[in-house]
Design goal:
- 43% of the residues lie in helices and 20% in strands.
- The chain contains five helices and seven strands; from the N terminus they run αααββββαβαββ.
- The longest helix has 23 residues, at 104-126.
C-alpha cells in the first residue's frame, strides 16, 4: 500500500501542475483519467485477485444484532459469523434452507459468498486486504438435513477460493460442523481468523 500511496501523491502533484497550464475540457479529461488509474492502484492486489476469480468484494453487510462484523486483537482479526448474503438477500440456490446430498454443490458456492462477506468485514478493520499475511482458520457451520455428513465438502468451496486468492498464504486450519438451524434460515454461517502485517491501516 506504500507504493499505492506514493503513486497517489504523484498523481495529485501532476494533476496540480496540469491545472496551471490547462483549462476547460482538456484538464477535466486528464484529471478524470488520473483519478481512475489512482483508484485502480488503491484497490490493492488482493481485491484484483478476487475480481479475477469472477467475484467482487461486497459492501460490508449490516449487522443484525449487538456485535461488530470483525474485531482485531494484536495482529489477529476475528470475524463474526457471516451468512451467504448478497445485496441483503440469501443467495439462491444454495444459501437458504437445510443442506443435503442433492444441493450440497450449491451450498459450496454459497460458502464462497459467505467468505467474501468475511473478507469485507476484515477490510472494515484493516483498511485493506493486502494487510493479510496468513489465513489462520476457517469455521463453517452447515444447516444439515438428517443423515447429511458431507459438511467438509461444502466447506471446500470457501477453502478453494481462499487458496485461489491468497496462494500458499491461504492454507488454513478448518472446522466444518453440522447444525440444526441457523439465523434467517441460512444454509451456512462462516467465521474467519486471519493474521495481519503491521501497520494495519485504521
Amino acid at each position: 500500500m506504500t507504493k499505492c500511496f506514493n503513486f497517489s501523491v504523484t498523481i495529485n502533484i501532476f494533476s496540480s501542475n496540469c491545472n496551471k497550464h490547462l483549462s476547460g475540457l482538456a484538464f477535466l479529461l486528464i484529471n478524470a483519467s488520473l483519478n481512475l488509474v489512482n483508484s485502480f492502484f488503491i484497490m490493492g492486489s488482493i481485491e484484483e485477485k478476487i475480481i479475477k476469480t469472477g467475484f467482487t468484494l461486497p459492501q460490508i453487510t449490516t449487522v443484525a444484532g449487538l456485535y461488530s462484523p470483525a474485531m482485531r486483537t494484536g495482529n489477529l482479526v476475528y470475524t463474526s459469523g457471516q451468512l451467504p448474503l448478497w445485496n441483503g438477500k440469501l443467495v439462491e440456490p444454495g444459501g437458504k434452507g437445510k443442506v443435503n446430498d442433492i444441493n450440497s454443490e450449491d451450498a459450496a458456492y454459497a460458502s464462497k459468498v459467505a467468505l467474501l462477506n468475511a473478507l469485507a468485514a476484515i477490510k472494515s478493520v484493516t483498511g485493506t486486504l493486502d494487510s493479510i499475511e496468513k489465513i489462520v482458520k476457517l469455521t463453517l457451520y452447515v444447516a444439515s438435513e438428517y443423515l447429511f455428513s458431507s459438511q467438509h465438502l461444502v466447506a471446500n468451496g470457501a477453502s478453494s477460493l481462499l487458496l485461489e486468492i491468497f496462494g500458499k498464504q491461504g492454507t488454513h486450519a478448518r472446522s466444518a460442523v453440522g447444525v440444526a438451524e441457523l439465523p434467517l434460515d441460512a444454509s451456512l454461517e462462516l467465521e474467519l481468523i486471519v493474521q495481519c502485517k503491521f501497520p494495519i491501516l485504521q
